[in-house]
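Reposting from the mailing list since nobody answered there.

I have sequence plus structure tokens for a pair of proteins and want to know whether others read the tokens the same way I do. The first protein:
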Amino acid sequence: LPMAFRDVNARRHIGLQQLSSLALAGRTLLGPMKSCKFIVDESTNQSTLICSAVRLIESLDLSSAAGQLLNETIQAQNKEFKTGMSTLLFLIGAWSNAILECLQQNVPVSAIVSVMSEGLNSCCERVQCLQISIHDVNKELCSSSVRPNAFKSKTCQIGPDSLLNPQNFPYFQKDILAPEEVIPINSCSHQDDCNCNKCLVSPLAGFGSIASLVKPAGDKSTSVSSGSSVITSSCNKQKLTHSRYFSTLGKSHFSSQQGNFQGYLSGQSADACECYGLGHLAVTLSHGNQASMKLLQSIVAYQQERAEGSGSSQFNIAEIVTCCLLGLPESYSCVFPGLVTLVSPEQATVIKYFEDKPLRILLMDGDLTEQYRHLGFNRPCNVRTILEHPSLQEGRAGDLWLSSMLDILISFEVNLVLVKGNVCENLMERCIANSILVIGSVTRDVLRAFGEVTSAQPVTYLTQVNAACVGSGAQVELWKACDGRAMDLGELVPVRIKVRGIPLLTAVLTTTVPSKMQLIEDRFWTLVYRLYHALNDEKVFLGGGAVELLCLSHIQMLAEQPLQPANKNAVKEFHNPWLAASATEYKSVVLQALASGWKQYLSVVLCNTAKAASVLEACTLVDHHLKKAADCGSPSAYILKEFRRGDLLRGGSGPFADHGDSLKVYDNVTAKTEAWRRALDLVLLVLQTDAEIITGPKRNQLLNSHVSSEFMFL
């Protein structure tokens, strides 16, 4: 260990060191250009590719107390926001190291806790000036005159009758209930001259069509340019580039996500700039994730078209599910109305029999097993008789139950059963033999979506079924790829269940690399939740490092202003009067430690995105902007000006530098600030826990002992 940590080790601050070591593994996961990691399971020798803090934490040895706390913190952030975990993990490590340095300088624990807490609170208040409302984001996109050919892609011609059809979006597969026409995803991506016979959109032409798609009702501003044949609107003129950093039901979890977000897509909006809507907002939040962004744009378009009749708009996460198909190229990823899921080959034979036929559907809100009882069920306290041959008796009872359940399904002419939980294998086999398709492990949101359009009513037990519970109108077919071919992926077969007008959408995610499948799905959901939280907050942060740079500037400014204990105004940043004397002596050291976390954050992202060749070069660039911000007199004004110019911490070697112009990128407000708070709260908790151990009644004995660190940190 370095010399600076020897005394710290002697004082047994093991928890902070463990946090620092665990967080170090996640440095490459920061920023838009993440370096993926292969995780190998020693028991199976199977590997998987991870690119998120959540998957990393799941793969690390977290047997220590500090590791358990770290895992709980990361999981809490993931459960609530689904974004911000990499930032959280990095800041935990950076601030752990910073506090260890403070301890090396004999800074009291009480001063570290109070000054850091108040410093972060002050930062959160200061960066509010970098928040921008969703309405203003749309206005800025409009006033900046965005050009549709954002990625310099070649596009196919689009007929005027297709302007408001979400199926023209690059990753949207048409509903086969409508007149049949397959939309290839990459129909023109490999051609120099695009001369298509059909009205198609290339995979990179979504920006042009989103403007017309979400324009106010009755707006006739849409036009088609004869040169490139790309749909444009009257406020759609500037080219977009794409980089996150430094560059040009019953109430289930997240049931609140079904709330309406009025105005962003609504035809009632009086502002013409609202035509950009959620599609363009998704672009600014995509942080370099182009594939997921195009899928999300198609989803937004479909949901908007469904809502047009009611005059309101919504972005409903509960109506989005994913299906991961291994073995197909990523270019086959697209969005389908209805449910796409995987079934066994035996079930697929039933589907071939049902293809193109309307089915009677039953929804089960529980397990379809003999032993299943609903939550809260009180079992009778009867005495169970033990027979001489219980196995024979139980076998007869099981057969009786199977026959009874099958008779119920046949009597009500049920063809399709969607089950929320598990399905008895024996019953599944009997249903297949009688041409009844049973699909288990279906979410409650999926059941709700099918119930809305088929009039089926969920039941807990098959014995509750009556004629009113059975819905109609569903159709089942083998899933077909964008080129029209049905797919058999070996052990499991993808199928599609569809109903006309169903609100449910399935994002089919494909790849030929098994270890990459989880990564693609995680990235998709991260973007979906970024958009949701932006709408829920009704505001976003300026992205590209703007917020972190202002935090760094603000903390350094506070550190340079010495406190006077006798002057109440001098300590107004710190609301604990009893700490005034200690803060006078240690305030600058502790605040500099807090600031070092932001500086390391910016430096690592610059290195990860190849904007700086080394950490030293990255720190020099950050210091350069800090000096210019200080010379300006108003750091926030300087940062806002540089952000609008696209020059904030910008380098020429970024992944999208060849596009020249800058795309405004934004971050979630609540998710980001909560990641900061959770990171500091965890570090300070571990610090105080360590301090309690080494300052107890046996302090001297503990400090001089060679007891294992696992017993020192409880």
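The second protein, same order (residues first, tokens after):
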Amino acid sequence: RRVLLLGEGNFSFAAALCGARGTHVVATCYESEEEAAGRGGAARSIRRLRDSGAEVVFSVDCTKLKEHFLPGKREFDRIYFNFPHCGRKAGVVKNRELLACFFHSCAEVLAEQGEVHVALCNGQGGTPADRPRREWHNSWQIVAVAAGAGFILSDVRPFKAETIQGYKCTGYRSQDKSFCVEGALNHIFTRSTPPLCLSPMSCKTPLGSQEVSFQVPQVLVDKINRGFLERSSSHPVRTVKEKLSAGLSQAFPLQNISSCLPLLHQGPLHGVCHSSIFWITLSPGEAPSTEETSQGLANAVWFSHFGQDTDGDVQEGCPIPKQFYLRPSLLPDAQAIIQKGAFSPGTLHVLSGPVFRQCRITPHSTPVFHEMLVVLAVSRGTEDGCIQVLVENIKTTTSSLHQAVSGVQPSISLREATSFGTELNDFAAFECQLGEIQHFLCVGTDPDPSGSCVGVIRTDPDALKSSELVVVSASLNLDLLAMLLCGISDWRMLWTPDRRFLQQFPEGELRLFKSFSLYPPSYVHDVSFWVPDGEEFDEVAFHTLARRVSGETVVSIQLRDTFQQPGTGRRSLCYRVTFQSCDRALGCREAAEMQLRFREEIQQQLGVTLR
């Protein structure tokens, strides 16, 4: 591998590396050869380097590396820059500028899978790894500076100068003096995946007896048809689903529903907040005829309390829907299978696939996730015992997986629906809109041992025509389960295109996730506006716009202030928007540009007046 060393003072660090097998060292310094050789021990180190076959290059500007190396010799596997400094008494601002130019220059000569190593004195980097940590404005802000050039911090290690044979740190304030290396840190940067450039996308799906195409909502373009649950996938979401299925098959005969489930549903949505639904308009010429639509409604799949009377029939006067929507749940698909009679009592039927729900921005609120729905018909009067067996099986499998991954026994509980107050997460809150729930399945780990809801249990005594059978169903959020089991703190990481995510999960194996992007910088912007008179502000639409404009780099939106103008009654809202990416480089300039676009979009799409 080719290793480039920059800013060498006396070349003692380079001399210590030059003997490594399989490594070709290119050692450089900013000074001329005459100036560099005057430093104590430099001449000896230079001779050693040349005798070992290493290259020694002088007068190299670390901000213009492309100019010093021919195109065929620019692919460096590692670049080292130990204790960079502008010289003399340069302050933090000038040293940030030096690092910014350095990282942009590295991007032109680093191999695709290469690393950039930057050693800094304790406190300079401005990351939580520094002990003690400096105030942000008084640090070199190395992670934010590197992000502007497309790099992410992937590791931080102690810089142990005493373990490097013959190494002597020099160059403090351009003098033959040593930097204070006690507590120094080596920051290791890698290339980030580039920002996603998402083009409009259409998708085909069965609808009734025909196949239709539709325009995918922009916020879902990078998430539709990702194939996480396909047989060839090694994604942890699929592994969790397979492990749960294997556990359930020990207690029940199990049948996976392999038929292609439609992405689109149609029909009225009484009782569900419409702003939580991704509404779809079919592509021109794709809409079914009125007769087909009416027939589709006659055979429609209904949520338990949507558009039905007490007998389960479609209510008279229920309007024919003019729009379709991405499925928010697999429950209607299970009901369709039941109504068609393709349902074997005593057999556990398993449906799985992505479902789509517009929601507010939080680390655990997902606009798309993979649902695993298990459905079982049992004899009336035995449903409580069935639920107990079903839940115990899920608890045993989940607990075993968590212990194997982290070595910690999680807290798994079945909570009565009546025991929850207002602390429901978005997944559970939406499930409550789909029909009555008997139990919530919660998994708790430190620091939240009380548990996050990952599943709901329902019983439906009227789903089958038989008066002797009751349908029991369990809906599980596979994405939340995978996050809890593997220690993934942000749902966006499940959808990252960065190959380093899946590399941590060999096929069929769950492990604790180690982030490849440490201490990502965050950028805070405020936005204030007047809302239209007499209208309720749609906060979910506001959050969805932020997702779309930022490419899912908005990590938090908080209402900071409300104001009602005396006399006119006009209402103003002020929100704080925080930009932060969990998996790729996000620079301050890019975040500022997103904020400007966001301001324009909310004005055009939501009809607000900016302040």
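Reply #1 (J.P.):
I read it the same way you do. Residues 383-406 form the longest helix (24 residues).
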